[in-house]
Amino acid sequence: MDNLNNKFKEAYEKISYHVKEKLKGEKSGHDWLHVQRVIKNSLRIAEKEGGDREILRFASLLHDVEIGLEHEKGVDHATESAESARKILVRYGLPKKFIDKVVYAIRVHRYGKKIVPKTLEAKILQDADRLDSIGAIGIARAFAYAGSRGAPLYDFNEEVSEYDPFNVKSVVTHFHEKLLKVKDSLHTDAAKSIAEERHRFMVKFIERLMKEISGEA
Ligand code: NI
User: Fold this and answer.
1) pLDDT surpasses 60 at 44
2) Measured in angstroms, how far is the CA atom of residue 28 from the centroid of ligand 1?
3) Model pTM?
4) DSSP conformation class of 105
5) Average pLDDT over residues 147-173
6) Were both Cys, which of 96, 122, 149, 165 would link to 105 (CB 3.0–4.6 Å)?
7) Which helix H or strand E contains 201, and what residues bound it?
8) CA of residue 3 relative to chain centroid, distance
């Protein structure tokens, strides 16, 4: 068992370094800082909900590792990151069952795919990732993302429709299509309770933003 623990420890350290290097210069809000927050969120949720902490740490660490491919080639980063994660984890000789669970959680993590995961760890990863898209941090990331894609802050001629990650819209439209709906997409009670205040904060922010744009405030 000690041997296996050492394997996990060594793999985690080396993969962290790899992910950090790979995400250098990432401009869309899926950078190393996001990864660190998702790891923290996952473990925070697991404190109340249970779940395998090792699976969660590795799945969170690798969940967006191929985000760059999505920007370059328009492919789905969740699928690509899952495949990449399998290759990386196999190299460290970690147990197959463990790898399968990490890979599964990564593959289904994407919000836009609307997949309800079959495992607790995959549910927790989805929730952890989604929590990072709401509240003050969610607001900050939404504007950073729009900036990286050349999208405007708001465009009132834009139609609010079904969220499509490959159709980049203004930040205000993005709030209505996705961010204000995130709290209702969460699986665990722990994440739902964290989301409540974050959601309220966003609603307040949007109200205020509208007032300033319209000249009421
Ligand atoms: Ni993410």
Assistant:
1) yes
2) 11
3) 0.95
4) H
5) 92
6) 122
7) helix 189-214
8) 32
